[in-house]
Q: What sequence folds into this?
């Protein structure tokens, strides 16, 4: 049975209530910079300009881990200039400049990678990484329907790239990470499959054909269609990591407010893949989060709200915006597995059925070595 529609939050009271559970002052400040156009009076304890020097460092570190440095510090700089706080303005300007330099270097390499794939006769597109524009993620994610041997050969021949160690999850998902000299970011290439265990091939087959060409600064790349962006975000956040970054909230809100979404296609594609409930829930969470910091959330149609299993009230903050695994994520996983099985997708079902064992191994590896990278 479908859950009741998620209720849209109203404009926040003053002072702003802590949200989500466990939220720190820096998270509140960062969220206000991103989503609240009216930051209020400087007497407010959570006003961005009231941060102490050590809190500024924490704010920058949090913004970096959530991939929102430029989008958060640009309004911070404007506030500082308006309040005649030159030291704070200079601090923000310096951080923004460093990030611009990093991003331009990454995009220059990314353009060369695209040209190399074209030279080798291989299709390729960017997924996820450029969703954060004008920010950029900590690695460069690509998708290609080419043969793995062709992808590896292209990266080694043109960039002297070396392969990073592959985890069990990488092997199931059919993805490879490359280290390129002169590029700080890893290049992660998803080859022909999507999902934590590579269970999704139908969605993967449609990505290139539905892609669009967009400019990012001085560069142009093939990127995912709006609906496919939402699908990939759902797979990553609701079915793999079980947490959101602030960039996921900001990216999705910006996309849905500036691009028309074909909800008919979104529903049919995700229903077939068994992730419609997760997609609707992801959108409800995003809507609830931004509604806490401004007047109103996203304009979601009833088909989305009625399918959402929960909303932002379930989030907690522990470095990221955490989604409870029990029982919510388990239910979404079970629904996905059942749908694939009912559709007779044997390989996808078998791959996805390995996920609990993979997750268990990751927990054990984390406890023994302090890292789950060899598994997850």
A:
């Amino acid at each position: 049975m479908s859950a009741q529609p998620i209720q849209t939050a109203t404009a926040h009271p003053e002072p702003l209530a802590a949200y989500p559970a466990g939220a720190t002052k820096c998270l509140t400040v960062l969220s206000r910079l991103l989503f609240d156009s009216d930051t209020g009076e400087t007497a407010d304890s959570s006003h961005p300009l009231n941060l102490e020097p050590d809190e500024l460092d924490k704010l920058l570190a949090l913004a970096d881990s959530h991939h929102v440095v430029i989008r958060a510090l640009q309004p911070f700089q404007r506030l500082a200039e308006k309040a005649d706080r030159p030291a704070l303005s200079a601090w923000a300007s310096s951080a923004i400049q460093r990030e611009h330099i990093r991003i331009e270097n990454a995009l220059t390499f990314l353009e060369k990678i695209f040209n190399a794939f074209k030279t080798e006769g291989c299709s390729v597109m960017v997924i996820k990484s450029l969703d954060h524009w004008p920010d950029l993620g900590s690695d460069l994610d690509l998708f290609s329907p080419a043969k793995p041997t062709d992808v590896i050969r292209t990266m080694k021949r043109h960039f002297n790239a070396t392969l990073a160690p592959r985890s069990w999850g990488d092997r199931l998902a059919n993805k490879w990470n490359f280290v390129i000299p002169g590029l700080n970011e890893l290049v992660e290439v998803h080859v022909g499959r999507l999902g934590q265990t590579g269970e999704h091939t139908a969605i993967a087959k449609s990505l290139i054909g539905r892609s669009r060409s967009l400019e990012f600064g001085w560069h142009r790349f093939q990127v995912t269609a709006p609906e496919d962006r939402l699908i990939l975000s759902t797979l990553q956040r609701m079915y793999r990591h079980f947490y959101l970054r602030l960039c996921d909230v900001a990216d999705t809100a910006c996309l849905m407010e500036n691009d028309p979404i074909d909800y008919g296609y979104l529903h049919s594609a995700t229903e077939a893949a068994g992730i419609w409930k997760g997609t609707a829930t992801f959108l409800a969470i995003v809507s609830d989060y931004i509604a806490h910091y401004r007047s109103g959330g996203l304009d979601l149609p009833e088909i989305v709200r009625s399918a959402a299993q929960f909303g932002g009230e379930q989030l907690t903050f522990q470095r990221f915006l955490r989604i409870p695994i029990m029982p919510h994520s388990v239910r979404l996983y079970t629904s996905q597995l059942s749908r694939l099985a009912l559709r007779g997708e044997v390989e996808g079902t078998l791959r996805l059925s390995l996920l609990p064992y993979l997750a268990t191994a990751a927990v054990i590896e984390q406890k023994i070595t302090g890292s789950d990278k060899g598994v997850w």
The two ends are 32 Å apart (CA to CA). DSSP finds 15 helices and ten strands in the chain. The first helix runs from residue 25 to 35.
